[in-house]
Structure formats: structure tokens, C-alpha cells
Amino acid sequence: MDKKVEKIIDALEKHEDAESIAVLEELGTNSPDNDVRERTSKALVRKNVHDSLKVVIINKGKGINDLSPVVAMSTVNEILALEDKTEVVKILDDTINLNDIEEVRENAISVKSLLTLSE
Q: What is the rounded CA–CA span in Å between residue 102 and residue 61?
């Protein structure tokens, strides 16, 4: 990954505004480059706020639902590494109970199981 892109993702991760999440979602998670998507997903998880976690949990093709196993698993590992998992558990529960896409629900169930086992 280009160092400039990495620095931009790092800077957006540190911003606390909704626009930084929107930019990471629009440009980072939609990138054709697996490394960019992986780094972006990690940044969104590290923000650990409702809107950023939703991007990597409820969207088909993004975060835990990425078609690249490397991106999906690195996102899961980042979720497992969170110190405060309160918000991620809420979003996983909502996804399991309310999401219309079976694959997304199944991935949320798997991640929630991993969280339970890691406690």
C-alpha cells in the first residue's frame, strides 16, 4: 500500500467526526486493493463508535463480510482485540435479529460466538 494512502487512513482514523467515517466507508471499503480495504476496516473498528462499527458489520462485501478472507479475518481480529466491546455486541445483536441478508446474519453470529469464547 502506498505510504500516502496509509497516512490518510491513519489521519481519518484519528478524527472523531462523522465525515471521516463516511470517507473511510466510501473510498476505503470500496477500494479494489485488498490492503486498502483491510487497513480501512481496521481503522473503522478502532474508532469503536456505532457508525464506524456498522460499516464493517452490517454491509455485505465490507469488513467481516468482505470477499477477501484476509480482509474479513483481520476485521474480526480487530473486533476481538477491542477493549470495550459494548457497542460491537449491540450491533452484532441487531444484525443477527434484523438484517435481511442471510450471509451477513451468519457472519454476525460467528463473530458473536468468537467474542463469547474469547471472554
A: 13
Spans of all domains in the chain: 3-118
Long-range pairs of 4-11 with CB within 8 A, sequence gap ≥ 24: 5/36, 6/39, 9/36, 9/39, 9/40, 9/43, 10/43
For residue 105, give Cα distances in angstroms to 12, 33, 111: 28, 25, 10
For 7-62, what is each residue's pLDDT tens digit? 999 999 999 999 999 999 999 999 999 999 999 999 999 999 999 999 999 999 99
Please give the grid coordinates belonging to residue 82.
Answer: 477491542
Location of C-alpha cell 470477499: 67
- Cα 80–Cα 81–Cα 83 angle in degrees, nearest 5: 110
Name the pTM for this structure. Answer: 0.95
